[in-house]
Design a protein that fits this description.
alpha+beta; 2 domains; three-stranded antiparallel sheet; 5 helices; elongated
Length: 150
């Protein structure tokens, strides 16, 4: 096929719906030893200059994202995780630091423990072990009732 017989869109060659050809173009512009596994932005510029097909940007994004070489040598932009250490039993004081919160204005439900219709939930969370306790209660809870619940 001569150059003047190619289907074109602007100056780019139109690539027909052939996944093998499209993958080869992506391979030549991303995986090739001369291409050096360029990022998405770079291969997008290079490929769009020469080729065109429908949903081209979506295919390029997916190809770069699932590239095994790129995943292995990818630069991590977050702080590295530290090694996990076990908590010694003498330093653990579970339920020493608590967070309490109320969810109010809920649909009413009959609660036999407080002998009243409950319309709120008391949430208690231990900060150390992240254990949560959910207690059905009422919105107008006073200190005396709260201490009875605990």
């Amino acid at each position: 096929m001569r150059n003047n017989e190619l289907l074109r869109r602007d100056l780019a060659v139109y690539v027909l719906n052939d996944s093998a050809t499209r993958n080869e173009i992506l391979h030549m512009n991303h995986d090739d030893f001369k291409a050096d596994h360029f990022a998405y932005a770079h291969i997008k510029t290079v490929i769009r200059r020469k080729y065109y097909w429908s949903k081209m940007l979506k295919k390029m994004t997916k190809y770069v994202r699932i590239c095994s070489d790129c995943q292995r040598v990818r630069v991590h932009h977050h702080k590295f995780y530290e090694k996990l250490m076990s908590i010694s039993s003498d330093s653990v004081n579970s339920f020493h630091t608590m967070i309490m919160n109320f969810i109010t204005d809920m649909l009413s439900a009959k609660n036999s423990y407080i002998e009243k219709t409950s319309d709120a939930i008391l949430i208690m969370i231990d900060k150390l072990i992240k254990h949560a306790i959910y207690i059905s209660t009422i919105k107008d809870l006073n200190v005396e009732r709260l201490t009875n619940l605990l």
